[in-house]
Write a structure and sequence with these properties.
The protein is about 20% helix and about 20% strand. It has 9 helices and 22 strands. The strands form 6 sheets. A 10-stranded mixed beta sheet has the order 6-5-4-3-12-1-13-15-2-16, sandwiched between helices. A 4-stranded antiparallel beta sheet has the order 17-18-19-22, with helices on one face. Bound molecules: 2-acetamido-2-deoxy-6-O-sulfo-beta-D-galactopyranose and calcium ion. One of its GO terms (molecular function) is hydrolase activity.
Length: about 500
């Protein structure tokens, strides 16, 4: 508390001091000219545009996230680069478009690390600028060099990419290995019960969701029928490591404890925490105290749980006097999905809740709901509460934060400096953006969305989501047509041509 206050006072005194001086001809240099607030990125998994109160949800209550939105900037055109997890996280951490890297697709739990250790990353940038850097939560960017022994040090991973501290789950909650990894080592591993992981074949004698449905407490709908952990059938096979296996219902509390501990340990220095929550990705496993909390089934319950977790985390910042000195960015890695492979009543109990907020598509889709997500910037006493329509993307955090430290980001050209928009000082964000969904790309520019023709099914019937595939170009005015119902490609041939040219230039075609 004291330290935070002191810091704040010091900054205020300095600011007053500076403003009394005659206008400096040259930029102030040295320690105090550059601001170094703590930076926290709270990143949700599969949370849709309409899944929180501040973005229009009425059936689902998210008071803590809403407080961030009401006291900060609520962006209406905030984007993940992609409609799935790995590529969005790749872009967030590297500032590079994920379609430049063919490995940036949904990864199995055994995939090697897809970020080069000599590549620029957000944590490296912050480290260079005096920050301690940590990640707590979901990783899903691969680990190791392709030959990981889960019983030894697992590297390279986050700690080789600029994170001083990492406490992660390797891939997704529905993929093996179902263990936490603490700075490159499986947490709580009993050396007498080694872990083996395979995405190719089962280990002899190990039950699977496919062959042993009687051992499952959650039923699989598609995929998710391999190794069973805690009664939940997963993607991939795993053997051993019994003591290290996570308890799904405790995951939210467990990550919260780690995030709080991180803040407490590093409150005396500028810190960057990438807090990547696992909700509401499948399997949706609310702690018993949240079961039934939303009335919308487990998907709603884990969103309520995540909101509670965020509230507790904010309390911890507040308790330590850090609110005025912490820049918080809240967003999601991709849009919503209801049935993503388990029977968990997400569809049946949805009622009138609209996870997409009326946008078309969802997770996996090139339509807006795939990538347009809640995006909130909160910095108490610093950022004016407002709603901003500026187009902002997670890809831009790298160049924007670099600008905050007067650091050059020319090594990361895809990332744009939109710091004034992110701090609410300008309503101009990016001019355009290439969005990506399962390897396909599309263009957002101004009020327009352009989707090039793609072969393939119009709808993924397993998840019941429109993917955006069509034989012809699709052009939508998303300002006037929020739900992308009217293809204007034939009505505005010149606009169509203009956007095709922009798209092809950006894609290097
Ligand atoms: C899909 C899984 C889905 C989810 C997704 C990754 C099947 C049939 N579906 O392959 O359940 O795990 O991958 O989601 O296995 S993401 O948010 O991490 O991108
Ligand atoms: Ca996701």
């Amino acid at each position: 508390m004291k330290r935070g206050l002191l810091k704040h006072l010091l900054v205020s005194v300095l600011a007053v001091g500076l403003s009394c001086k005659p206008k400096p001809k040259e930029k102030e240099v040295g320690e105090e000219a550059v601001q170094r607030p703590n930076i926290v990125v709270i990143y949700m998994d599969d949370l849709g545009y309409g899944d929180i109160g501040a973005y229009g949800a009425t059936e689902l209550k998210t008071p803590n996230i809403d407080k961030l939105a009401e006291g900060g900037i609520r962006f209406t055109s905030g984007y993940a680069t992609s409609a799935t997890c790995t590529p969005s996280r790749y872009a967030l951490l590297t500032g590079q478009y994920p379609w430049r890297r063919k490995e940036a697709r949904i990864l199995p739990g055994t995939a090697p690390l897809i970020i080069d250790t000599d590549q620029p990353t957000l944590p490296k940038l912050l480290k260079k600028n005096g920050y301690h850097t940590g990640i707590v939560g979901k990783w899903h960017l691969g680990l190791g060099d392709g030959h990981v022994d889960w019983n030894k040090e697992i590297a390279p991973g986050p700690n080789q990419l600029g994170f001083d501290y990492s406490y992660i789950l390797a891939a997704t909650q529905d993929r093996v290995p179902t263990v936490y990894i603490d700075n490159g080592k499986v947490d709580n591993l009993d050396p007498n019960d080694p872990i083996e992981v395979s995405y190719k074949k089962n280990f002899e004698g190990e039950p699977t969701g496919k062959d042993n449905p009687e051992l499952t407490t959650m039923k699989w709908h598609h995929g998710h029928n391999q190794s069973i952990v805690n009664g939940i059938p997963r993607i991939g096979y795993m053997k051993g490591g019994k003591a290290a296996r996570w308890k799904d219902v405790d995951m939210a509390d467990h990550f919260l404890e780690k995030a709080k501990a991180y803040v407490n340990e590093h409150k005396g220095e500028p810190f960057f925490l990438y807090y990547a929550l696992q909700q509401p990705h499948v399997p949706r496993t609310p702690h018993p105290r949240f079961v039934g909390a939303s009335g919308l089934g487990p998907r709603g319950d884990v969103i309520v749980e995540a909101d509670w977790v965020i509230g507790e985390f904010l309390k911890e910042l507040d308790k330590n006097g850090l609110m005025e000195n912490t820049l918080i960015i809240f967003s999601s890695d991709n849009g919503p999905v209801l049935n993503d492979g388990y029977y968990d009543e997400a569809v049946e109990k949805l009622g009138s809740h609209t996870p997409t907020g009326g946008l078309r598509g969802g997770k996996y889709s090139l339509f807006e709901a795939g990538t347009r997500v809640p995006f909130i910037v909160y910095w108490k006493g610093k950022v004016e509460p407002q709603v901003s329509d500026a187009m902002v993307c997670q890809l831009d955090l790298y160049a924007s934060l670099a600008a905050m430290f007067d650091t050059d980001a020319t090594d990361v050209p895809d990332s744009e400096n939109i710091l004034p928009a992110l701090l609410g000082e300008s309503d101009t964000g990016r001019e355009n953006l290439i969005v990506e969904a399962t390897g396909r790309t599309a263009l957002r520019q101004g009020d327009w969305a352009l989707i090039p023709p793609y072969k393939g099914a119009a709808i993924n019937t397993q998840v019941n989501i429109e993917l955006g595939n069509a034989e012809e170009y699709q052009l939508y005015n998303i300002k006037e047509d929020w739900g992308q119902q009217e293809n204007l490609a034939e009505t505005y041939p010149e606009k169509l041509q203009e956007l095709i040219e922009v798209y092809e230039k950006l894609r290097g075609k």
